[in-house]
């Protein structure tokens, strides 16, 4: 009998705990004003749509939409894809769908949106209020939030378009130096970028699709290289002083910087496979446009008797400190071209220089290019997320702009040139595979660095499929007259920094958790009802 009792106790200990986030739950009875609930869902969807269109990642948008709904104590399910956001409240049978029609990076306005979301999320929770008190408090907060968001989305860019063009030109010149070119290469690369940007601006007004814009940009860059190859023999310039391949590669980096390869890998790592697939397909299509542009010009050049061949370049002649300063200029220029405000652009510039120094250190320790890139990106993600609140600069700006000097522009160009050449083969595919591994390493490093920084600060990582603790019903509930939402009265440059995207959820990470389930994206959906989630 004693052995039987012992066996029963052991069997009882072997039984697992019930799931903290059961599937197929019934909808809770409606206890909120349906119109106020709809306005809440609309506000969350508008914020998510704005962030997606301005350059935020899917995981940051998901967290923001979830936390905004929580702040109003509204239970919702969220389905987020590359171009749409669907939010539904089962208790009232209300759903709101927003479609992202245009995506144009603007870190200045994105910082304003993030600042607004932080104000909403940081306001006292409406949990536990009566029907009348909740409706009154929610409507007052919603009116102020919608009005502020209206002003943000209608605000102008931080800089004029000419300054953006000059920033892109400076960026191309810096990449030319970073790849080992001299001042002449930097000058020609910068002027070529001015030509390309002017042509693309004109074609954009004609509403030409981005695929054809990439073809035109790559064709112009390669055309300049062919022109240099044919005219250098008649100029008082040696070929080694102005290698055409560096001119092309510099402008390719400018074209690649606007792509979302790193963002696609980041979304895939964070549990948004369909969104990542959409971004990845877009990257492949735009990269194919670059291949077509280069291949078309090369074919015309061969028919004209000109051959653009790839030669082995000598080692980079510049000292490390010069290349670090060049990386500072590249990252700062890209941040400015993405409409980041001055303080954010300065921080991004310093991050670019520090990231390049970390990359050089890791390569000298014997790591390969892909591993060194991932290690430098990890340092960037950790430092950027750790200092985002103190510096009041979005971590997204720091990380995205800081990795630009490490983008594999020359590797991609060499691989594409080998593919479009007559004897192209496995070498080009190997180079393109190496470039893809570098991009994946950059994304993985940045994501891991941010997660480590959040864990060391005692915060939960932004990954939506995570385990969170429950909240007891005894949590204090503020009175309705204490619920004051602090929002910016006007769009001043002082709100530039806002807060880091991960930091917007800081007020809730130690408070109201939520239940998580799987969405049609293959990524997560969220039930923002304060129940625990299974990670």
From TrEMBL:
Pfam families: ThrE, ThrE_2. Residues 15-35, 487-535 are annotated as: Disordered. Residues 334-450 form the Threonine/Serine exporter ThrE domain. It comes from the Bacteria. GO terms for cellular component: plasma membrane. Keywords: Cell inner membrane, Cell membrane, Membrane, Transmembrane, Transmembrane helix. Residues 43-300 form the Threonine/serine exporter-like N-terminal domain. This is Threonine/serine exporter family protein. The lineage of its organism: Bacteria, Bacillati, Actinomycetota, Actinomycetes, Micrococcales.
């Amino acid at each position: 009998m004693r052995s039987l009792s012992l066996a029963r106790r052991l069997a009882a200990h072997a039984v697992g705990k019930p799931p903290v986030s059961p599937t197929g739950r019934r909808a809770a009875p409606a206890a909120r004003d349906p119109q106020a609930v709809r306005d809440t869902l609309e506000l969350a969807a508008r914020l998510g749509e704005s962030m997606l269109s301005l350059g935020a990642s899917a995981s940051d948008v998901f967290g923001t939409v979830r936390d905004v709904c929580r702040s109003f104590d509204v239970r919702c399910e969220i389905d987020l894809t590359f171009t749409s956001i669907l939010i539904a409240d089962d208790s009232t049978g209300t759903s709101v769908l927003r479609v992202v029609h245009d995506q144009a990076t603007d870190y200045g306005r994105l910082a304003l949106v993030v600042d607004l979301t932080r104000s909403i999320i940081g306001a006292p929770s409406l949990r536990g209020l009566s029907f009348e008190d909740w409706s009154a408090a929610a409507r007052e907060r919603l009116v102020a939030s919608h009005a502020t968001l209206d002003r943000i989305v209608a605000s102008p860019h931080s800089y004029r378009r000419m300054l953006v063009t000059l920033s892109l030109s400076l960026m191309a010149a810096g990449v030319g130096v970073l790849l080992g070119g001299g001042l002449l290469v930097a000058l020609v690369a910068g002027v070529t970028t001015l030509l390309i940007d002017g042509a693309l601006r004109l074609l954009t007004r004609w509403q030409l699709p981005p695929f054809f814009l990439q073809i035109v940009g790559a064709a112009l860059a390669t055309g300049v290289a062919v022109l240099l190859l044919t005219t250098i023999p008649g100029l008082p310039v040696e070929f080694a002083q102005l290698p055409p391949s560096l001119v092309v590669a510099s402008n390719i980096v400018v074209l690649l910087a606007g792509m979302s390869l790193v963002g696609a890998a980041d979304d895939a790592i964070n549990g948004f496979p369909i969104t990542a697939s959409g971004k990845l397909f877009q990257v492949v299509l735009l990269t194919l446009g670059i291949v077509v542009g280069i291949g078309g010009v090369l074919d015309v050049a061969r028919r004209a008797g000109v051959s653009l061949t790839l030669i082995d370049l000598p080692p980079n002649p510049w000292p490390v400190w010069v290349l670090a300063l060049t990386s500072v200029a590249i990252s700062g220029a890209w941040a400015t071209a993405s409409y980041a405000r001055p303080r954010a652009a300065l921080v991004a510039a310093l991050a670019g220089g520090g990231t390049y120094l970390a990359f050089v250190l890791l390569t000298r320790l014997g790591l390969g290019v892909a591993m060194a890139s991932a290690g430098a990106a990890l340092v960037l993600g950790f430092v950027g997320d750790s200092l985002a609140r103190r510096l009041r600069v979005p971590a997204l700006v720091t990380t995205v702009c800081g990795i630009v000097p490490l983008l594999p522009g020359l590797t991609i160009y060499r691989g594409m040139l080998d593919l479009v050449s007559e004897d192209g083969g496995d070498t080009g595919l190997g180079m393109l595979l190496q470039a893809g591994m570098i991009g994946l390493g950059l994304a993985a490093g940045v994501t891991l660095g941010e997660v480590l920084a959040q864990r060391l600060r005692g915060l939960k990582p932004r990954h939506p499929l995570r385990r969170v603790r429950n909240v007891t019903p005894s949590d204090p509930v503020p009175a309705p007259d204490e619920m004051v939402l602090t929002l910016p009265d006007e769009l001043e440059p002082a709100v530039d920094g806002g807060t880091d995207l991960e930091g917007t959820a800081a007020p809730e990470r130690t408070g109201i958790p939520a239940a998580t389930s799987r969405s049609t994206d293959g990524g997560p959906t969220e039930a923002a009802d304060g129940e625990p989630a299974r990670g």
